[in-house]
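Input sequence (541 aa), recorded before submission:
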Amino acid sequence: MPLPGRRLAPFFCLGFLVLSVALGVLLTVLLTRRDGPHHCLPPRYASAAVAADTRTCSQVGRDLLRAGGSAVDGAIGSLVCTSVLNPQSMGLGGGVIFTIYDAQKGDVKVINARERAPQNFPQNLLNQCHDGLLPGPQWVAVPGELRGYQEAHRRYGKLPWKALFEPTIQILRSGTRISSVLNRFLNHTALHSALERSSLRKLFVDERGNFLGSGDLLRWPSLIRTLQAVAENGADEFYLGETAKKMVQDVQKEGGNLTLEDLRNYNVSVRDAIKSELKEYSIYSAPRPAAGPILFFILNILKEFNFTKDTKKAEAYHYIAEALKFANGQKVKLDDPDFSNITEDVLEELISDRFAHEVRKRIDARGDHPLAHYAKANLPRSGPFGTSHVAAVDQEGNAASATSTINHPFGSMVYSAQTGIILNNEMADFCMKQSQRKISPGEMPPSSMVPSVLLSKGREAVLTIGGSGGTLIIPAVVQAIANTLWLGEELDAAIEAPILYADTKNNAIRVESTFDQDFCLYYRAAKRLTTMRLLVINFKN
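Predicted structure, token format:
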């Protein structure tokens, strides 16, 4: 559903937030166009815009742009704000991936600050994998969020580092109240019982020990102190300073494995974005261990079906569903390239037109094939969990697409009371691994995140897109692109449209309850109704 206040300046600035059980989904898109004809001078855009998953955090980013900040400044400011207003989804104790378009240079870089495996993690950790929530200190990976902000700001920032944190510090000082969205997470049956047993409980209860509800004041003085220290001292405060010492002390007190050495040794990965062609657009996204290659694989399959606005929706959605099923079988290739035994040649083949053509020949009108038709190995474990996304474009046409996460709702539910930081449970993403190769210290887990930027051939338009929701990110982004570029829908309708996805456990097709009824009838007529299950319940924010 549309987020309130989503239109910022004269841009389409669109998003939806969907909740289902312990599941959060966000799709954020910015569509921008140049103002005026081509000139030799660098192009100026009509205005600048930021889209986050709350109005407040979108405004924080917008105000930073108005103060002369870059797209990256706006994105970072919005992310810091989101860590306070939606702490169930992301925060300083997590990780982030930026895809950044530099309009002056014409290149697109990816800054991957995903969490990394610590030096001392349980060797039998993968034996504890299952399909539900995975709270607990054993799942905490080394946070990368602030090193990601630092690197992005060093390369592309304009405003002082401190300025990116001041709006959120002021929000906390003034007092932030529990939103209806956060309230639903806090009071969901499965999450509530886990929170009751966790150290995070102390953050979200009142003086009488009752969980806070919608509209209640959330007091977070320890996080104010941490944000102030980071604003003054830089990211080193988190990785080398007193904040690091206090956080490690709290994690180890709960039985976690995080050490000061882990924090000291953390480093980000900076690579060129991967690229694919879609009609008059070039699309750029994040390479593995992010899921950009899977996104491209799906789009390459679909683009040769030559969908148009006259294509029957039920037919188009059937082919999208089949492409998603084949994509599930390819996710085993998303290992960290610095530790993987899967070569880059394999990844280049995955996103090639030739491979897409071969897969396309295996897609028919049936769609009821066994798993072996779609994948040579068992499908990877993964879940439709949290994360948050921010999209930003500045007046010079630079774009930042950033996805951040602590993984499952409230991450590991390990809370550092001294620092106010909620720790991730990103080690749970290694449950997606299919090979027998062990996890290596310093390795990044595979991810479904696809922060992406679409550029027209003449660089006259920028579509900045990304999403959240674990395994739902890819199908949501695919369908938004397909609906907009091929099926002739207006962008706002494409973003708000209900989605389908192929369940990673068994390739069953799931849809939102309001999904296209012709498609549902198509499956019912083929006696495949058993694959259709309620996916989400929409809540107004």
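Checked by second reader. The CA atoms of residues 17 and 26 lie 5 Å apart.
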